Amino acid sequence: MPVPVPRQRESPAVEHGQAVLPKQQAGSSMENASAPAAAGPAAPASPVVSANSTDLTLLVIENDPAGTFTVPSLLDAAGTRVRIRTARNLTEAERLLTDDVHCILLDLALPAPTSGTSAGTGEDGESGDRLATLRHVLRLAPRHAVLALTSETDVERAAEAVCVGAQDYLFRDELDGRQLSRAIRYAVERKRADTAQHKLAESRLRAQENARLERGLLPTPLLEGSNLRFASRYRPGRSRALLGGDFYDTVRTSDGTVHAMIGDVCGHGPDEAALGVELRIAWRALTFAGLCGDELLSTLQQVLEHERESEEIFATLCTVDIAPDGRRAGLCLAGHPSPLIARQGRAAQLLPYEDGGPALGLLPRARWSRRQVELGGSWSLMMYTDGLIEGRVGPPGSKQRLGQDGMVAMINRQLAAGLSGEALLEAAVTEARDLNGGELTDDVALVLLDRG
To answer: What is the C-alpha to C-alpha distance for residues 98 and 292, in angstroms, rounded to an integer?
Structure first.
């Protein structure tokens, strides 16, 4: 064991509460630190080493008012110096606990604080907590590694200290330089690993909470009593997100009319996703209140104008209200592409509509007309956002877009192959992505209503 050296508080080597311990050979002491090191085998490396050329700082908080606590010489094959700071009480420790401290060596025999803190009564409020001082230090230094120092006869409390939050414990009677050096390195690396693991766990919890929130914000169609079949496909453009700036909804009102809509807030970040949810919920409430056509869209524009972050934000919208008999519908377009309809025995085509109004949020006093559309007896109506038709086609680097004509041709091929419902929408998104040569960069939403 290296020769222990009494701490000399008045020594010139101690400046501003720090004592610098340079690299030493086995068996050397602090008194020989300035002598040339004798040749010999290198000391074994620490079990965990991540900063071979970075100095470490140890803050010692010990119950030694006489200043007789000895600091052993440290062995370090990596060439790292350990700077020692000493504090005789928690008040002094708090003053010396700066960001450059890597590890704290706490004497568990240090008296617990009795004023200005609840540490003296323990976390559960009961008196006699023998780890009250440790708990106080852990609260004081949540980002620092902590080593507990105690006597060999107090094994139970030493183990309990690790359970409470210390990275490791050391016995005062068995402490030597090599053990302390390794313990410091181990504690620092374990604290780093624990912190990283804690941050990872917090990140996963936040991701799970966000996922639950976003799933809860996706619409649940209300079509009870209707003979229409509903299918949807939604893919946000944001990485690892469930919700984008596209939005859709479908409800059936008490008179038997089925109302459907699909929209797109410009952009596809979290702010746009939140605005899309607000517009969807507002649309559902206004629809149940009996609003339709221009009156509904004008009110939605007011909602958008009040809720958007800047005047440059706008939203496109397509609304369809299908009569109770399912044979005709009213169609309104606010800067949105026209839906596609496939009637039995006929190829799919876009619904003709030349009288659409501007996107919501572009013109303060805009008006939107409602056009009557004949659907027929058996049909499939597909509403979509521009994320589907703006994907590229052709060879790599091509600027050609799929467009509405390309989408119609693609849907007709898939209908000829016998696809319908969810399978049809999934195939449409998959083929558009394949034609694009990779993931589509914008949000994509599809809604399909079938009759007959």
So the answer is: 65
> pTM for this structure?
0.60
Spatial neighbors of 69 by CB under 8 A, at least 6 apart, are: 7, 60, 62, 86
- Burial (CB < 10 A; 0-12, 13-18, 19+), residue 121, is middle
pLDDT in tens, 102-152: 999 999 988 877 655 444 444 444 445 789 999 999 999 998 999 999 888
Helices (H), 218-347: 270-288, 293-307
CA-nearest of 443, 450, 412, 434 to 262 is: 443
CB 104 within 8 A of CB 144: yes
CA separation for the pair 418, 414 (Å, rounded)? 7
Do the Cβ atoms of 121 and 132 come closer than 8 Å?
yes
Please tell me the number of Cα atoms within 13 Å of 438 on its side-chain side. Answer: 6
Amino acid at 77: A
Q: Would you say how long the chain is, in residues?
A: 452
Residue 38: strand, helix, or coil: coil
